[in-house]
Amino acid sequence: MRRELRAPAVIGVCVVLLLVLYLAVRTAVPWLDTTVAAAVADVDSAVLDRVARGWTRLGDTSTVVVVAVVLALVLMALRDWWGGFVIGLSTLLATSTTALLKLVVTRGRPEIGAQLEETFSWPSGHATAGLVLALAVTVVVMHRSPRWPAIAALVLPVGLGVGVSRVLLSVHWTTDVLAGWLVATISASTVVWLLPDRPQPAAPEIV
């Protein structure tokens, strides 16, 4: 499927799923959230807690924005303007959309999360930031290296793991994280779709 059709299809599916999640959380806590929260509460592992706390820092919005800006500037310095814009704009769109949705939906956090975090819960900013950067990096590497599957296999689990850590730490509901992942996917897909095609290197002249 060509990019002109594939990206809008991904965006459309994700928007519908995001709307379904919003309708599910706007009046009550869904069964999925309470079930997962209860299962997490039954887990008592100091090691898992330390891993989750370390992993969740990778999704701090300020950290992700700084990393995205640095990567974008490096790519632009290498004259890969397309790659720089993909990373920079995807991160900007995802984080700003998440901040806006939090203010619109105003969903409360789980009991523990409400004691630790002051912002609203839906969608998860950490889950959004972690995955959108991983997606943007994957897209850029796809256009730069034939070994991109290996890099994707590394960065995507890291990005997804940020969202999982938020649930393990009981600072977010599962549907908050799912919504964050959808916002990240929508944002990266939208930027790639709207940007002009990446310039192809000129073929060498035959003398």
Main attributes?
Vanadium-containing Chloroperoxidase, domain 1, 207 residues, disordered C terminus, mainly alpha
Q: What's this model, at a glance?
A:
This protein has 207 residues and is mainly α. It is 74% helix and 0% strand. 38% of the residues are buried.
Detail the topology: elements first, then pairings.
Blueprint: H1 3-25, H2 31-41, H3 46-56, H4 61-77, H5 81-105, H6 111-116, H7 125-142, H8 148-168, H9 174-194
What is the number of beta strands? 0
Instruction: Tell me which CATH architecture applies here.
Output: Up-down Bundle
Hey, roughly how much beta strand do the residues contain? under 5%
Instruction: Give the class-level CATH name.
Output: Mainly Alpha
Low-confidence segments, ≥5 residues, pLDDT <50? 201-207
Number of helices: 9
- Alpha-beta content class: mainly alpha
Instruction: Give the overall pLDDT as a whole number.
Output: 89
Domain unit count: 1
Overall 3D geometry?
Answer: globular
CATH topology: Vanadium-containing Chloroperoxidase, domain 1
Helix content: over 70%
Distance between the first and last residues' Cα? 37 Å
| SSE succession | HHHHHHHHH
Rg over CA atoms, rounded to whole Å, is: 18 Å
What does the main sheet amount to? none
